[in-house]
């Protein structure tokens, strides 16, 4: 669902996909190959929200801000399920973990990884390539080349997802029985532990 608000109409590039159960409101600009999942709310009612190319905002995320503030989620920023971005700017190719909260005027550096359920306080500045965890969130180490390569591969799956959704997602009636020879999806991406064989 895409809504005009006070004369502001969202701009969504045709290559991007906004799920019908998401809500995009007002002064929002969504670039190329972005994915907005069901239940996500991107509210550009009080300020501008820009999603640069290749950003994904997954299921049940909220992106909003205080009045008069504007924010940017830079190219390939990856916002995990249930996260809240409130008036914060996200750097290029960063990862925001599931159910984390990033508060007003915080700055997440390029290629940083914020762990699941972290709480990043208002006005916090996270340097680029930082691994951030906890409540309140702290930088615990630098992101390695291997870790950022793993993150980037995962984001590429989300950058392909808009095309897949445009081509194959449709509303249907459910099957009543499991078909014989039902397929399962291929394993195309592994967890961090599976990838590196130890806790990073």
TrEMBL record:
It holds the Pfam family Hexapep. The keyword Transferase applies. Keywords: Transferase. The keyword Nucleus does not apply. GO terms for molecular function: transferase activity. Gene3D superfamilies: Hexapeptide repeat proteins. SUPFAM superfamilies: Trimeric LpxA-like enzymes (SSF51161). This is Transferase hexapeptide repeat family protein.
